[in-house]
Design brief:
single chain, 408 residues, four-stranded mixed beta sheet, binds flavin-adenine dinucleotide, 11 helices, four-stranded antiparallel beta sheet
Length: 408
């Protein structure tokens, strides 16, 4: 009897999973197997410091194994693995609640884009530096007049022979004041149609002419900045892809950003209870059923939705690994971030007055963290493209619906 097609891949994956499990067991310190607070996240970069010796050991072991970016080529600090192996590592880390050893827009977003669009010199210069945590990257996409309508951006880069001269500003640049480099969308041809006059530039934040100002938020804390470029000279070799073809790089990078956003809720900083756990902690039960019929209904709805999302996620992964065109990645950002918002609303409804604590006595840490995560969850359906814009994308690229004429 012949083995079913693909069984060799499954055998290989089973064996790989066992190896990953053993390695993680031996190398992931116990302190790195619990939810992480924002203060403990290690972002690397020139100013980056490890929050603890265990965090440093964990990062270094994962880096040396190439598992910070398992699918990147070995020469650039990855492990040269297939995507399915990368997923096994991710799954096994999740199984033991292993912390992400290195956070960063470099490793999540810019690196994959450079592997696709960067030239050899750019890949050599930037990819290992990202894995080695030498550089922390910021994202310079949004501008005061260009968010959802990103292609309207006005920050301009003029060709001055051996360099570009950049002038303008970027808005909502997360942690720009702590970052070393920024990847930026700039207008290089003001005469061309919107998308066709944009280029993708890599800019050192230490270059003269760059300043950042922090934007205060209602919570008092803020990671948002506005970043100003005043006659900044950027070497020509920092152009990624072709001149005026930056829109393709931008879109590819956004796919990675949206994938990340879709998964954000699966690893919230700090321990956030699940709605099921919260129900057992705060609600009354009778004969094994929640007595409050409305919350019972909402909880059942939420659990069914999460199950459907998990299946869609799995389907997307299977389609991708077997080379089938999949619509799943396009819908995951919308589904994942909206589900996280729904979860947070449900948690607060279940927790009642215990869900209203911002600080102070009368609330335990998990309750305080839940309200803060609820506030943060609102931003997930905005960052990386709002839900409304995601629906437009789904309508156009998945459902093939006609587009409203511009100006309507
Ligand atoms: C937590 C967070 C971190 C961020 N970090 C960064 C960063 O590091 N770098 C960066 O460049 N940007 C960053 N952003 C900015 C983010 O990309 C923008 O906020 C987002 O693209 C929306 O743009 P906007 O804020 O200008 O809103 P607008 O585009 O002005 O939208 C306002 C409202 O109008 C709706 N709308 C707009 N156009 C349409 C349409 N065609 N159809 C239907 N509805 C529409 C939107 O859905 C939204 O509700 C971040 C945002 C957040 C929340």
């Amino acid at each position: 009897m012949t083995a079913p097609i693909g069984s060799d891949i499954l055998d290989d994956l089973d064996q790989f999973r066992a190896e990953v499990r053993d390695w993680l067991e031996a190398n992931c310190p116990q302190s790195q197997r619990q939810p992480i607070s924002p203060e403990e996240q290690y972002w690397g970069g020139r100013r980056g410091t490890f929050p603890s010796d265990d965090a440093r050991d964990w990062y270094q072991r994962m880096r040396d194994k190439g598992w910070l970016a398992p699918e990147w080529p070995v020469v650039h600090g990855g492990a040269g693995l297939f995507q399915r192996h990368g997923k096994v590592i991710k799954d096994e880390m999740k199984r033991i609640n292993a912390r992400t050893p290195l956070y960063g827009l470099g490793i999540w977003m810019l690196g994959p884009a450079l592997l696709e669009f960067g030239n050899e010199q750019q890949q050599r210069q930037h990819l290992s530096a990202i894995v080695n945590a030498e550089v922390r990257w910021a994202q310079g996409y949004s501008e005061p007049g260009a968010g959802s309508d990103l292609a309207s951006l006005q920050c301009k880069a003029e060709d001055k022979g051996d360099h570009f001269l950049v002038n303008g500003s970027k808005l909502w640049t997360t942690n720009a004041d702590k970052c070393d480099w920024i990847f930026c969308l700039v207008r290089t041809d003001p005469e061309a149609k919107k998308q066709e006059g944009i280029s993708f530039l890599l800019i050192d934040m230490d270059d003269p002419g760059i300043t950042t100002t922090s934007i205060e938020l209602i919570s008092g804390e803020s990671e948002f900045c506005q970043t100003f470029f005043d006659n900044v000279r950027v070497p020509k070799e920092n152009l990624v892809g072709e001149l005026n073809k930056g829109w393709s790089v931008a879109k590819a990078l956004l796919v990675h950003e949206r994938k990340l956003m879709a998964e954000l809720g699966t690893e919230p900083p700090r321990k956030i209870m699940s709605p099921n756990e919260a129900a057992h902690r705060y609600l009354e039960f009778e004969d094994g059923r929640i007595t409050d019929a409305v919350l019972r209904d909402q909880l059942a709805d939420y659990n069914m939705q999460m199950h459907a999302i998990a299946l869609t996620h799995f389907r997307g992964f299977e389609e991708k690994t077997s080379g089938v065109q999949s619509a799943a990645p396009v819908v995951m950002k919308y589904l994942g971030t909206e589900a996280e918002k729904t979860k947070c609303e449900l948690l607060l409804a279940i927790m009642g007055s215990q869900g209203l604590g911002w600080e102070g006595e009368g609330f335990d840490q998990e309750e305080l963290d839940t309200l803060r995560w609820w506030a943060f969850s609102k931003s997930m359906t905005i960052a990386g493209g709002t839900s409304e814009v995601q629906l437009n994308v789904i309508a156009k690229s998945v459902l093939g619906l006609p587009q409203a004429p511009r100006g309507n």
